[in-house]
Design a protein that fits this description.
alpha/beta, Alkaline Phosphatase, subunit A, five-stranded mixed beta sheet, globular
Length: 539
């Protein structure tokens, strides 16, 4: 068995301290963790990351208590692919679009069970309970689902004509072709008349209920996860008043996944509603920090905060995600990490490159569970001690779209030549899309193929992608729906806003090699490697 310190590339001067901590964690059952996830957080809106559009005093409080990571990146996107990465510790976007955990997948809540650690999920993220997410929440020992976010099929109103409700909303929010079901959300919202009715408020109330009952117990992980500040940007009236704009018109808080074409007043209104919702998230965080203070939980409980991906709020003339290059606002995400064994590192920052796939091995290390052999993420814990890592670069992207690589200095977006006519397949044993099963038409193309290295000897269904079949699922989750697919290189040091691509042959040659090396290490299918080679002329 490879030494954990050797595998993680820890400097020898820090090995003895790290081994001591790991031994204590392996032998004891006193680890406690609150893992907090907000959805779609634009990192640059937070004051600890230089944000100045709104005050986020509680994110600042957390930064003063914890270690702030300056180079934390996504892996697979969007929502459920990102969660698959987090649970399994490896990238999924090279093989699969949106889909459930697979029978061969590892999962950190399952790994924690092997050492007697209890995990509990509290979430209002309704994608867990759709066809394409249905195996995630059941990996935890227990879970609490809060209803009502976005298009969650929750409340029913058959008497009120939908046309009457639609009149409250901007015409852009009345397009059923661009959203899963905006009318579900409109009806849900009619039942949220008080701030206490908001799903994210209920999530935190459930979190405090768990802590009131269990904070003195040992060996548990509590994951509190809120859909906010994901669109639609519905915040309490008191916060919307705080960010009031000159916009006069129907409700405008759900941006289209499109290029920005709105008037300045409409743009300002959309951004203001996002900020109001992010301010609510900051308040939720503040209540949790107050709870940690009141009950002296800092002495024995870790607190980790991140998001699944970022969100464009008009930057680069785009809204949202999925359809455009994976700019820093989407790919470069916040991470705050407090560990009671490293409280002396409060307020420090780390430059080491980390990624969402690192949570799985991190939680395994924290609880003394064995990290599965298939995991390719790296434990974050050594970086809390010293800002050193052996990660050369991070790979990220959407299935069938670009393959992107970042090394801390340069960000490189690589796209196939023809997005609509790719030799493209999904590899799965769980043939479901986001909200429906694979169609019979799709499954007629299926063949059984040899296992990948990470499938534990299990063969897979190889299903050809059919663009017309994608019309039966979410509009924005397939490669032919992308609207900007130019291969470009950005220098993040000299151009952090990614305004001007550069053409540096030496850097491109180096990153080509890095990208393909990482693709091979992540078992990219042969056709995926072929189409990227064709695009870049790489041999």
């Amino acid at each position: 068995m490879v030494s954990p310190t050797k595998h993680l590339g820890i400097a020898s001067s820090h090995q003895s301290a790290w081994v001591s901590i790991k031994r204590k964690q392996s032998e004891g059952t006193d680890m406690k963790t609150v893992f907090l996830m907000f959805d779609s957080v634009n990192r640059l809106m937070l004051e600890p990351y230089g944000g100045f559009f709104l005050e986020t005093p509680n994110f600042k409080r957390l930064a003063e208590r914890s270690v702030t990571f300056d180079n934390h990146y996504v892996g697979s996107m969007p929502c459920m692919p990102a969660r698959r990465d987090m649970q399994t510790g490896r990238l999924s976007f090279l093989h699969r679009s949106w889909g459930p955990l697979e029978p061969f997948d590892n999962s950190f809540p399952v790994s924690l069970k092997t050492v007697g650690a209890y995990s509990h999920l509290i979430t209002d993220h309704y994608h867990y309970f759709e066809d394409g997410g249905a195996t995630y929440h059941t990996r935890y020992n227990s879970f609490d689902f809060i209803r009502g976010q976005e298009s969650d099929p929750w409340k029913v109103d058959l008497e009120t004509p939908i046309e009457k409700i639609k009149k409250k909303y901007h015409p852009s929010q009345n397009d059923p072709g661009s959203k899963q079901n905006p009318y579900n959300y409109m009806i849900n919202r009619e039942f949220m008349t008080e701030e206490a009715d908001f799903p994210s408020v209920k999530c935190f109330e459930a979190g405090f209920e768990f802590l009131d009952k269990n904070r003195n117990a040992d060996n548990w992980l509590l994951q509190i996860e809120t859909f906010d500040p994901h669109e639609p940007f519905f915040a309490p009236e008191r916060l919307r008043e705080k960010f009031k704009t000159d916009y006069i018109g129907p409700i405008l808080d759900w941006p289209r996944y499109e290029r920005v074409t709105e008037s300045q007043e409409e743009i300002d209104e959309m951004r203001a509603n996002y900020m109001a919702l992010l301010a609510l998230c900051d308040e939720h965080l503040g209540r949790l920090l107050d709870y940690f203070d009141e009950h002296d939980m800092w002495k024995d409980t870790a607190l980790v905060l991140t998001t699944d991906h970022g969100f464009l709020l008009g930057e680069h003339d785009w809204w949202a995600k999925n359809r455009m290059p994976v700019y820093e606002e989407i790919s470069h995400i916040p991470l705050f990490f407090y560990h009671p064994e490293h409280k002396d590192k409060a307020g420090q920052r780390r430059k080491s490159l980390t990624q969402s796939i690192d949570f799985m091995p991190t939680f395994c290390e924290m609880y003394g569970a064995e990290t599965p052999a298939e995991v390719q993420g790296k434990s974050i814990l050594p970086i809390l001690e010293t800002d050193e890592t052996d990660r050369e670069a991070a790979l990220f992207g959407y299935w069938g779209g670009g393959v992107n690589v970042v090394d801390g200095r340069y960000s490189y977006f690589c796209y196939p030549k023809d997005m609509e006519n790719q030799d493209l397949y999904q590899y799965t044993l769980m043939p479901t899309h986001m909200t429906n099963m694979f169609s019979v038409e799709e499954l007629r193309t299926a063949t059984l193929v040899e296992p990948f290295d990470f499938t534990k000897g299990v063969p897979l269904l190889r299903v050809a992608h059919k663009s017309k079949a994608s019309t039966k699922t979410h509009s924005y989750h397939f490669p032919e729906k992308m609207l900007d697919t130019e291969t470009v290189l950005f220098d993040l040091k000299n151009d952090p806003g990614q305004t001007t691509p550069i053409n540096d042959a030496d850097v491109i040659t180096r990153l080509d090699a890095t990208l393909f090396k990482l693709m091979v290490e992540n078992c990219a299918p042969a056709e995926t490697l072929a189409r990227m080679k064709e695009s870049l002329g790489y041999t």
